[in-house]
Design a protein that fits this description.
GO molecular function, one term: FAD binding
Keywords: Chromophore, FAD, Flavoprotein, Lyase
Family: Belongs to the DNA photolyase family.
Pfam families: DNA_photolyase, FAD_binding_7
Order of helices and strands: HEHEHHEHEHEHHHHHHHHHHHHHHHHHH
Largest sheet: 5 strands, parallel
EC number: 4.1.99.3
Structural class: mainly alpha
Number of domains: 3
CATH topology of the largest domain: DNA Cyclobutane Dipyrimidine Photolyase, subunit A, domain 3
Distance between the termini: 56 Å
Length: about 500
């Protein structure tokens, strides 16, 4: 049974060695961001090391984020994650201050209201966040307020893993080797038993007034049935994955009809658990059970944690990654204008069952199986020739794990325009992908129930079924379920031609 860390250095003991003597035992402002947890939280450890009151705050800053303000599904998750964090703080005699607006303005106000002599936070790596943090540090230090930031979200900092020329990696495999070779995880930081607050608490917003959850219509029923946001929910998810599932991960991760993945991505994105915690838990348990040999399934999962890391390093060093192709030649790619095709793709009405199942799972639960993410992304880009940025935008709004680095890097990978990208000629056939990875149709039957009674051999290509088979299954193509919106062979030839023109 894996649980939150119960051993290791106390937070104050760890942080004393890295904090300066200029900090007096007065209030420290602890700024929560994408680190919504109490365990293994370096900024919290630093705040506790001051031996004074701690004022925890979260600021909803849509203005600095600009076009990358949180999407609908992520806002739903944030609401519940903040509620869980507030409850965890209350159990320790503290509370969570909520503010909304430009973070720099609100931090300055809170420093004045609390008399804080220091502000601590854990880093974010989005371009707008990096720029804002640099400005804020300069402002605070200019006013005599100490400002410190820490790494709580990555295994290693983006500037720590470079190639032999001192440049960031653009290919994953050597990045993975370098990351692992230099990986030294710091000691575990326990969550505090108590957290002293200021004598007078500043004003806090009421989270229900932020309107993060949908009302009319309430589309979040599937999200509520699927997820348990918060630090405790993250550990429950990790515990469920860490046993047999992680050992079988190498095969099971590609089968969307099985519960074969960790589903940790939203918990990692919101920092309810960190990659170092996941790494320690999985490697410790796996090696304890199997000796010195790391099980293949766990090894593959660790490489995917490293792929997440790779994406964040890419974004840090290539700040235009969400807006511009990493490979400049793709700026001239002949994208098609197809509003109807885009709408059908979003709705899960393309006529290709594995694609439609994925898009419907996304809408219902705020999440999609990773193998199916690749299939639906390939379909949008290469079958419909629709710009990858359209798909990125839809995922941003509908995924509970919408992460700017992961989203941009993975969409560009599929498009062929990114780092270590999928070859231009790799065009998934959605029929054969469905037959290979959903052979018994469990996934399609769950999310495309109108096809549930079709025999397996027709399920992933219902237009190939005989009229009698369709009738027996209660399916009328074009009525109960759409015919394919594009022919695969034609789409493949068109995509290859478009890619050839770009390469030329």
């Amino acid at each position: 049974m894996i649980s939150s860390p119960a051993s290791g250095l106390r937070a104050a003991e760890l942080a004393k060695g890295c904090w300066t003597s200029e900090i007096r035992a007065v209030t420290t402002l602890l700024w929560f961001r994408s680190d919504l947890r109490l365990a293994d939280n370096p900024a919290l450890a630093a705040a506790l090391a001051n031996d004074g009151p701690v004022a925890p705050v979260f600021i909803l800053d849509d203005e600095d984020a600009g076009r990358w303000r949180l999407g609908g599904a992520s806002r739903w998750w944030l609401h519940h994650s903040l509620a869980a964090l507030a409850a965890d703080l209350a159990a320790r005699g503290s509370r969570l201050i909520l503010r909304r607006g430009p973070a720099e303005r609100e931090i300055e106000r809170l420093v004045a209201e609390t008399g804080a002599a220091s502000v601590v936070w854990n880093r974010r790596y989005e371009p707008w966040a990096v720029a804002r943090d640099e400005r804020l540090k300069a402002t605070l230090k200019g006013r005599g307020v100490a400002a410190r930031s820490f790494n709580a979200g990555l295994l290693r900092e983006p500037w720590e893993v470079m190639n032999g020329k001192g440049e960031p990696y653009r290919v994953f495999t050597p990045f993975w080797r370098a990351l692992r070779a230099g990986l030294e995880l710091p000691a575990v930081i326990e969550p505090p038993a108590r957290l002293a607050g200021p004598q007078a608490w500043p004003h806090s917003d009421v989270i229900e007034n932020w309107g993060l959850t949908p009302k009319q219509p309430d589309w979040a029923g599937g999200l509520r049935d699927t997820w348990g946001p918060g630090e405790a929910g993250a550990w429950e998810r990790l515990d469920a994955f860490a046993g047999r599932t992680s050992l079988e991960y190498g095969e099971a991760r590609n089968l969307p009809g099985r519960e074969g993945t960790s589903r940790l991505s939203p918990h990692l994105h919101f920092g309810e658990i960190g990659p170092r915690q996941v790494w320690r838990a999985l490697t410790g348990r796996a090696l304890a059970e199997s000796g010195d040999l790391m099980p293949a399934g766990v090894e593959i999962f660790l490489s995917e944690i490293a792929w997440r890391e790779f994406s964040h390093h890419l974004l840090f060093h290539a700040q235009k990654l969400p807006e511009q192709p990493l490979r400049p030649e793709f700026s001239a790619f002949p994208w098609a204008s197809d509003p109807t095709g885009l709408a059908r793709w979003r709705e899960g009405a393309t006529g290709y069952p594995i694609v439609d199942a994925g898009m419907r799972q996304l809408w219902a639960t705020g999440w999609m199986h990773n193998r199916v993410r690749m299939i639906v992304a390939s379909f949008l880009i290469k079958h419909l020739l629709i710009d990858w940025r359209e798909g990125q935008a839809w995922f941003w709004d509908t995924l509970v794990d919408a992460d700017l680095a992961n989203n941009a890097a993975n969409w560009q990978w599929v498009a062929g325009s990114g780092a270590d990208a999928s070859p231009y000629f790799r065009i998934f056939n959605p029929v054969t992908q469905g037959q290979k990875f959903d052979p018994d149709g469990a996934y399609v039957r769950r999310w495309v129930p109108e096809l549930a009674k079709l025999p397996d051999k027709f399920l992933h290509a219902p237009w190939t079924a005989r009229s009698i088979d369709l009738a027996d299954a209660g399916v009328r193509l074009g009525v109960d379920y759409p015919a394919p919106i594009v022919d695969h062979a034609m789409a493949r030839a068109r995509a290859l031609k478009a890619y050839a023109s770009t390469r030329a």
